Amino acid sequence: MNADALQAAIPEIFAPWIAQMGLEVQSSEPGLVSLRLPIKPDFVHVGGVMCGQTAMAAADTAMVLAMMSQLGAFKPMTTVQLQTSFLRPLSGSHATVQARVLRSGKSLAFGSIDILDEQGRLAVQATTTYALL
C-alpha cells in the first residue's frame, strides 16, 4: 500500500480521535512507514511538552499502518504489547514517527517504532507485539 492509500485508511479504520490527531503519512514501503505527527496544543501537558499518551497512540497507529503496508490491506489485529521508552521531551511543531515490522508470522507480528524530534533526535522508542486475528 502506498502512502496515499494508508492516509485514506486512517479515518476508515481507526477511532475518530486518532484521525483527529492529524497524522500525515510521509512515506511507505512494505513493512515500513514514516508519519508526521503535529504537536498540537491539545497534546501538550502542563510541563510544556507532548504527553506520553499521544506518543503511544501515534506509535500504535503507525505500526498498524506498517503492517498494512506489508500485508497489502488491513487485516484484523490487536495490540498485545506496547512497551515505550521516553528518552527526551518532545516539543516544537511536529515529530516524525517511523514504524518498522520486524517479523510477521501466522498469528503474531513484532515491530519497532522510533519517534524523532524536529532535529531528528530519537525521543521515544517503542516495541510492539500484535495478534493477527
TrEMBL record:
Q: Name one GO molecular function term.
A: hydrolase activity
* Thioesterase domain segment(s): 48-123
Task: Enumerate the CDD domains for this protein.
Answer: PaaI_thioesterase (cd03443)
| Pfam families with a match to the protein in the record | 4HBT (PF03061)
List UniProt keywords, sorted A-Z.
Hydrolase
Q: What is its EC number?
A: 3.1.2.-
Q: Which InterPro entries match?
A: ACOT13, HotDog_dom_sf, PAAI_dom, Thioestr_dom
Top-level division of the source organism's lineage: Bacteria
Q: Gene3D superfamilies under this entry?
A: Hotdog Thioesterase
Please state which protein family the record places this protein in: Belongs to the thioesterase PaaI family.
Q: What is this protein called?
A: PaaI family thioesterase
